[in-house]
Amino acid sequence: MMLKLAAPLLLVAGLATPALAQSTTRPPTMLIHGNYCGPGNNAPLPPIDALDAACARHDACTPDGGLPTKACNLRLQREAALVSRDPHQPDELRSLAGLISVGASMMMADRGASAAPAVAPAPTATPVSHDVASPETQRWSPAPVEAPSVPADEDGDESD
User: Does the residue 131 lie in any domain?
Assistant: First the structure.
C-alpha cells in the first residue's frame, strides 16, 4: 500500500523539480512592448525599436526597487511622444507610444530627488505685503456685457 502512494508522489516531485530549478531571484516582467516597455525588462537583450529604446533609457535611470526621478519620467514622456508623432513609424507603434507618453506623465516619481531647488531663490530687497491687492487689481472689473438688442417690430417700437 505504501509503495502505491509513494510512486505517484515521486512522479509529481520529479516533474516539479525542473520548474523549481529554473526559478530565479529576478522579478517577473509584465512587458507591454519589446524588451523594456512595462514593469521589468529583458536586459541584456537589445531594444526592438525607437519606443523600446526610450523605455530602456527610462529603465536605466530608474534605481532597482525604487522610483524614477521626475526628470527620468519626463524624458520617457517626451521620447514616446516623438515616436507617436513620427509618420515613419507603424500606426500600431505610434498609438502605443502615445499611450506610454500619457502613462509616463502619470507615473510616480522619487520626490526626494526633485523636492529641493538646485539654487535657492534670491531674497527680495524690499518686503512685499500680500495682504492687500494692488490698486490695479482692486479696480479691475470684467468688461460690461451689452444686452442683446431687441429688433423693433414693423411700426418701429418694441411692443407687439
Answer: no
